[in-house]
Design goal:
The chain has one domain: 4-Layer Sandwich (Deoxyribonuclease I, Chain A). It is built from one helix and five strands. It is mostly beta strands. The chain has a three-stranded antiparallel sheet with strand order 1-3-2, covered by helices on one side. β4 and β5 form a beta hairpin. Helix content is about 10%, strand content about 20%. One of its GO terms (molecular function) is catalytic activity.
């Protein structure tokens, strides 16, 4: 589910985060269902996995900010003990202060929760 509040649509570029050969742009905002477990963003999950450890290293290496609140899940099914935090929102640290009011919306009719946030700043064409 995506919603753009006004008619301005920024230029979109696709990056391969697993085989990145060029620097990431300083205005990067990334949201993905990573299916990666790490205590950094999911302390309620008892163990990290290799994918989560690799992702954590990548976040640090590329100077990214993580907006997820540790322990606040983004995915839940009734047979699970706790919701897991597998859908992550990241940005380059240079624009992290422009991302405000990150929150989970639980009741959207899916086992994935909605994620909302506001981007503050000036429009540049």
């Amino acid at each position: 589910m995506a919603y753009i509040a006004r008619s301005y649509v920024p230029q979109i570029r696709i990056y391969n985060i697993y085989n990145q050969e060029t620097p990431l742009p300083p205005n990067l905002l990334l949201y993905s269902d990573f299916n990666a477990y790490n205590a950094w963003w999911d302390p309620l999950y008892e163990k990290s996995d290799a994918k989560g450890d690799t992702l954590a290293e990548w976040i640090i290496e590329y100077n990214l900010a993580l907006f997820n609140k540790p322990g606040v899940g983004t995915f839940y099914r009734p047979l699970m003990q706790n919701a897991t935090n597998i859908d992550l929102t990241l940005s380059h640290c240079s624009i992290a202060n422009q991302i405000k009011f990150w929150a989970i919306v639980e009741d959207i009719g899916s086992d994935y929760f909605g994620i909302t946030f506001k981007i503050q700043g000036t429009r540049q064409d």
